[in-house]
Amino acid sequence: MGISKDLTEEDIKFRYINEAITSKGWSKDNIFMEQKVKFTDGKISLQGNLVHREKPKFADYVLYANKATPLAIVEAKDANHSVSHGLQQAMTYAKMLDVKFAYSSNGKGFAEHDFLTGKERTFAMDEFPTKGELIEKYKSEANDGNGLNEQELAVIEQPFCTGQNIFPPRYYQRNAVNRTVSAIAKGQSRVLLVMATGTGKTYTAFQIVWRLIHSGLKKKVLYLADRNILVDQSIQQDFKPLDKVTHKIDYSKDKNHLEELKSYQVFFALYQQLIGQNDAKNYKELFPNPEYFDLVIVDECHRGSAKDDSNWRNILEYFSSATHIGMTATPKETKYQSSIGYFGEPVYTYSLKNGIEDGFLAPFKVINITTNIGDEWRPTKGQKDIYGNEIEDRIYNNSDYDYNIIIEDRIREVAQEITNYLKSADRMAKTIVFCADEDHAERMRMALANANADMCKKNPDYVVRITGSDEYGKSKLDYFISVSSKYPVIATTSKLLSTGVDCKMVKLIVLDQQIGSMTEFKQIIGRGTRLREKEGKTSFTVMDFRNVTRLFADPDWDGPIEIDPNYPPKQKESKPYVLPDDNEPNVVTEPDPKPRPKPIVAKDGCQVMVINKIVSVYDTNGKLLRTESITDYTKKSIIDTYATIDTFTSKWQETKKKSDIAEMLKDCGIDLAALKHDQDMDDVDDFDFICHIAYG
Q: Is the pLDDT of residue 338 over 60?
């Protein structure tokens, strides 16, 4: 008897496919089968000021060898489709989930694609493989038909760490862990893992360590980082289930208690602690046996371990018998420094593009702001700076400001624009302002404090400089990155917050420094990508004063990793001496031992104003989706909320206090007063102005 074509896909699953699979030993009871498995959250899209989620991806069935190892995807279709109609979809999902077998069924039979052999077949409903048959098929066909070795079997059978406060791995984290432990089980000595900022690299590292230790493949682990906050975050958060066997290396204390170190399995260390002062090689004193560790993990490995002459490299070479895992969001590939050259090709890559597409990372918009002096400013003849020194007569532009010359009014104007945005959006939105150097970061802090005096009156930590030399600022770093701590709200910095720091609630990233490195650019953008929907963080904004976001158009933004043979760029030749001619006295002229400070131009010497603002929305490839002026953006935002002038007029008439309209627009991210001022329409009635902008 044939299957009725009136049956829905759900009917087919319930009446035919469920029975065909469960009769072969696949059961929900022991987690060997899951139905309707959601494995992405659905991309978050920005339209004006509205945020919405697209549909997540679901697999009809996922079959597991055990809790850690998915084996097969099964996609169902109704009887109006052929047996193999859903196979392409099943294969697409299987590739995402790193699954080796894909199946499709319409209730009349099954179609199979075997990724291990590349072969396809169809078979009857009662011929679906049993759990034991499919597991054996996987074990025997793996590794090009050579099968799995004993170490691979041991680590595959080791489950992930689970518990009340430990969330199960997302599909890409599971892929990353499985790929890594499998490579190590096969004997690979160096492994590179590339995962975008905000996708859980440290959690992934923890699960790798957990499974390797508990499967017996590794016994002693060294986790290297170059910043205290990275080490402390890892120990206190993701690695907490291993806290009883975890130790943070402190050379000054540990050198007198070497025997006690033997009781630990997982060691966290700053490479500075292991190197010591004057290249003392403390690691040799603490661990005289170079085979002490059998696994070394390098966090943010793009920051030095891949360099031939780096201190990290010396540590890795000393513990050369250990397996080395490099983890990064942005592998650095140049002629002189290569993550791939040292660790090899990544065993797994999960990019920023992947994270945004899947809905695990926050999307963003860019506000590009141009000032009247951005492209050029030239001092008047004989113009002097605040020190009374004559300013060099040449054309200055964005690459000079705060690097070679300080324009006081420019700093004030940038601070005011940041403040205007926060007033229109959220005064308490965590903000990072990337500055040219520490001096610029301090000047920007003062300008922001003055622009936000009302907020600083409530709490002087509303804006804080957080840089390497600022001890007070560094003491506030934990509060800035805390989800529960309100203050500081604005952090000015130069380099300290550009990489590694877990800034979950950052909603505004301000670029007021020159950035030429794609690696650094990706790291900085990554500061805003973390999602915290319960706390209201679903997207973020990049405010660009230096046209740095032109790098989104660079193929390397989310392109393949390639080595740049021209790195590092040629430096300008310094000329410390002027050599004499043969006929002149044998003298040399040395440079001025006390170079002049950067010229500082007072406000009356250069008045700065914003002349253009462009809002841009990019897709996950960094391709420009749309660009609109602030006026166009405002128009779209108002129309998204009030589709017609009648709707808006009705709302206006309902509102008793007209000032409520301004507050209502602020909820949409629009500062009515600032916009009227920009349009030189301060005296125009609010209602008339809004109608002019949105519906005129």
A: no
